[in-house]
Amino acid sequence: MGITVLSTIPGYSIMIILIQCTDRIGLVAAISGVLAHERLNITSLREHVDQAENRFFLRLETALHPDIPKLSAALKDVLPTDASITISTGSKRQIAVMVTKEYHCLADILIKNFFNTLDASVLAVIGNHPNLEDVCRRFGIPFYLVSHEQKTKSEFEQQIIEVLDSLPADYIILAKFMRILSPGFIARFPKKIINIHHSFLPAFVGASPYRQAFERGVKLIGATAHFVTDDLDQGPIITQATIPVSHSLTAEDMITAGKEIETSVLGRAMSLVFNERVFVHKNKTVVFDY
Amino acid sequence: MGITVLSTIPGYSIMIILIQCTDRIGLVAAISGVLAHERLNITSLREHVDQAENRFFLRLETALHPDIPKLSAALKDVLPTDASITISTGSKRQIAVMVTKEYHCLADILIKNFFNTLDASVLAVIGNHPNLEDVCRRFGIPFYLVSHEQKTKSEFEQQIIEVLDSLPADYIILAKFMRILSPGFIARFPKKIINIHHSFLPAFVGASPYRQAFERGVKLIGATAHFVTDDLDQGPIITQATIPVSHSLTAEDMITAGKEIETSVLGRAMSLVFNERVFVHKNKTVVFDY
Amino acid sequence: MGITVLSTIPGYSIMIILIQCTDRIGLVAAISGVLAHERLNITSLREHVDQAENRFFLRLETALHPDIPKLSAALKDVLPTDASITISTGSKRQIAVMVTKEYHCLADILIKNFFNTLDASVLAVIGNHPNLEDVCRRFGIPFYLVSHEQKTKSEFEQQIIEVLDSLPADYIILAKFMRILSPGFIARFPKKIINIHHSFLPAFVGASPYRQAFERGVKLIGATAHFVTDDLDQGPIITQATIPVSHSLTAEDMITAGKEIETSVLGRAMSLVFNERVFVHKNKTVVFDY
Amino acid sequence: MGITVLSTIPGYSIMIILIQCTDRIGLVAAISGVLAHERLNITSLREHVDQAENRFFLRLETALHPDIPKLSAALKDVLPTDASITISTGSKRQIAVMVTKEYHCLADILIKNFFNTLDASVLAVIGNHPNLEDVCRRFGIPFYLVSHEQKTKSEFEQQIIEVLDSLPADYIILAKFMRILSPGFIARFPKKIINIHHSFLPAFVGASPYRQAFERGVKLIGATAHFVTDDLDQGPIITQATIPVSHSLTAEDMITAGKEIETSVLGRAMSLVFNERVFVHKNKTVVFDY
Fold first, then answer.
1. Any chain A CB within 8 A of the CB of D290?
2. Per residue in B83-94, is it b (16+ CB within 10 Å) or e — as a string?
3. Is A233 designated active site?
4. Any idea where the domains of chain A sit in the sequence?
5. Active-site residue set of B
6. Which residue of D has its CA nearest to B239?
7. Phi, psi dihedral angles at D113 (to 5 degrees)
8. H or E element: which one contains A215?
9. Mind listing the pLDDT tens digit for each residue in A8-20?
10. Tell me, which fold does domain A2-88 have in CATH?
């Protein structure tokens, strides 16, 4: 059982509580009973039971409680021992962003960060190519160049880990980072790495999905945001979307056309995760959308 | 305070409970406490508080209870006096359909009714033109021809009311019924008449919306399903959608292109309403979507 | 080089001309020059050159010409020897429909056929299960029951071929026909068989795509209409679309949710093909959409 | 008759030719005949005749011609006297951007301009509030503060005109500029001012469309990009799109949710206009989309 007291978007005078555990009769009554006892009004609640998995998921919004540890303990007392409880009370997530050469997802993050609408703060950007350093510098965001060239994958990842270990990042956003990370790297950040894949998974796993899409003659292309696990492009999907394409587009045109949907899908995934709307269980997500 | 015991889609071994009332602290705890006491597991729950209106909306799914009146009374005891409680336990809605000349929405309803996927049963179709009688007859559905010609509106509506009064219809579906109904008619069936309007309201209120859309040179057309109130095309919106159109379409082409979106939007609205996912409060809806 | 004089949607006082051939300078001038010489005004024209393939595709709409053979010969004279020319002049396509048990795509076809908005005429329906016979009968459409049981695939297909050989069908629509057809069968009807596949290809090729989608935890499902070739689910894609799904849907719910998008995608593919908007070249299509 | 030799996106080794005129038989033959005579291969062509207006619209892509004036003269010779001919040969559009306080559309333009994917160059930004100066400065784009305070509308507009007159802007982009411009101002820049309106016009004309949308309880919100004419929000629509919203959004949430669709719709409109895909005729557009 884990209790995590996290932070959420600024200006909210609300608490968001997420609970995931084995299902049993009376869980909603137990949880809402604790809140009613504390005189907290629940302004929004969503509960889902995955009956095949016997798994309980609940998200609620309520007024701020002055004593979070006491509230956590009270909730813990009424829940199964495997329950994970997350209480978010108002400060923003902190993120690190990893990139290669493509600018579009990073720029969207930097702009929203600059205008304070990201629901998170960008601590730093790590790139394995130098070309995105300039745009980071213009927004006063630290850029760490960690080239993969003339290094083993292990050396390359060790240098990235050193940067990440120096940051208190809640999430690592792979904003078109084009190197495959090793299972060892990923295991250090479980459920903390979010990737944007430039296809509507599971179609076109792996490299050059737009080239694959062009060769197949598809009439729509897409993008998928997912948590990263050991298995390439197989992690839990957070959100995905598609746009129509026609015969008139070359594979290069599809890459261009895909930029907007990639940016949009990654942006939506971050908004969902940072606003505490996403649960992970095994290889799937439960998303309590807006 | 009203308690309604209704019916829902067949084959479900679940109950759906809808509650709407003035908000106050502890409502979720009170409701879920009653269910826990009855050993009913809540497999899905959505709660929304409209804070500006101080209004509480809740929908939950749980196992069937053997004694609905007892459960209703227990819920009533813990809720504000203005609470409306609806408990749906498995039999289908019954509907009457009103049409004029266009076939597409009616045909979708007849087909789903025939193959038992409508989540409702069609009792009868009332048309003010004879041309849709044939398709009704082919599916064994009674068709009542009530022409508006050579009658006052009052006489016309009185004849329709006589047909409707002979039916135990839960809802009246205006599936492209092209006559404007009087406030007196509508008042007899509050929150029971669902209309499909062939534009994305509030654009193009009233007659010939596709002609209006064509003249304006819009790049998308749409459809809106709404409950019917006294005020033409101003009732609470259930759902709406749009599709892109181009300069190459004439106003007549737009009418053709609109058929699919009209059918789809009305179908979705019926599914939401028949599955107890829609609340009406003042001139808006709360829709707990899939 | 082939010249085909076909038919198109009724009531049109226009001709649609499709030309596909090896590209060379001056083709548009040559074609439009022939039409100008005949005093035919071109009201809509789309031309696309696939430069990688050096392939020319053209579709135009013009007034009816009284002497189609003369016009065809004049066009043939100015085009490369490999040109295929199709001139459509107003009568409807004729189709055969093949089904198994699911009703939704078939019912949409039958309804549009009945109300004369399909842009084609349904000659017959062939089913390998008896359960869709009733709905065909209600619309007066011949239903041929050809069971696959206790037969070799060859015997089964031979019986279907006998039915099809008795019909003058321009296209064969697989409206949720759930048996895999042999290469020999398909070779008899090149570019004439249109299938609806219940996934956004190339994701989830083969059986039970919704089960696959559910297991993978995707956030959208889709449908793909394509011409059928030897290679299962690998033929030229005509059109495809997706809809969002959530964690709350079981695999069975996805099957239900998919019915509307399957119906819509197959309907759109038929409209595009029957209105002479689709070219096939190798394993891709060129679609001159509305 | 006007002949304009403009510029288009960089790196293209193609010419784009747009022709609009009164329709008559033989126009495609005449135009393509001129190109064939010059040994220019047409790789893409779209022609549309608005038959109610007897108006001819044509867009084609072909190889670069070394002598544009000669080509223009040859085309002029074969066309009606009212023909407008635009030949685009490769340099980018130049634009001025007008803003008030909201950053999202401007930031998208600045980012694409910085990474050279806007299909245009930003010459300057004019704002009537100072808060977007910082982001412009970070990208090295001149920002002109022209406050409307303590000025007549005429004085305010005169100051803007002085800035615009100093620039060779092809288009003026109103990227959430929240002041209504006078007919006199607009008349100086016919078909050159593009606005993003934060609703799916013609719904919610004028001020506070999201507040209007919230009050009406709509289930989708949208955005419309249009050319600006004298008549508020009534100019020719270039493109528009919608997104779904639910009861859980306040009017303020809708404003936030609308930012992405506004940015996307304005971005698409600019791409269409800058790539010579949009004709204006009377109060409508003909858009030859990708």
1. yes
2. bebbbbbbebbb
3. yes
4. 2-88, 93-287
5. 233
6. D219
7. -65, -45
8. helix A209-216
9. 444 457 899 999 9
10. Alpha-Beta Plaits (3.30.70)
